[in-house]
Amino acid sequence: MTHEEIKESLSAYFDGQLGPEKTVEITAHIQACKECRTALDEFGALSAGVKKTLPVQAPAAMKDRVLAGAQAKKRLIRPATVLIAAFAAIILVLMAGVVAKHYLPAMFSQVQGMINAAASSLGSSSGNQ
Ligand SMILES: [Zn+2]
To answer: Are 108 and 100 in contact (CB under 8 A)?
Structure first.
């Protein structure tokens, strides 16, 4: 085999796909030929690199744990978030009432009715009435 033929067969040689005769011939050539030795080293480095990067891609389980943790946090936060949203809504309704009272007196009674409706629905849902 020539140097070029051996160079093209290095991948198969590295994977152990060649017969014993070719393997012996290439092994002998590699010991004498620096270029083929370097090329074979690169196959080794590539293979080792693939083996090294595989565990890095693997921890999908870790990602799941992080997501599960985030969801657990969300579940803890949710009641407080609902209270804050309800409180903000009440503030907005009250502010709308104040604004209406100052600038749109005709709308005040309507807004007052909305506030009363909101207050009574809050009162009945919490059972305070
Ligand atoms: Zn060579």
So the answer is: yes
Q: 28: CA distance to ligand 1 center in Å?
A: 10
Do 36 and 6 touch, CB atoms closer than 8 A?
yes
Q: What is the pTM of this model?
A: 0.40
Give CA–CA dist 125/129, Å, rounded: 9
What is the mean predicted confidence (pLDDT) over 111-129?
75
pLDDT tens-digit map of 30-49:
999 999 999 999 888 877 77
Q: How far apart are the first and last CA of the chain?
A: 98
Integer Cα distance of 88 and 74 in angstroms? 20
In the reported structure, the alpha carbon of residue 52 is separated from the centroid of ligand 1 by a whole-number distance in angstroms of 28
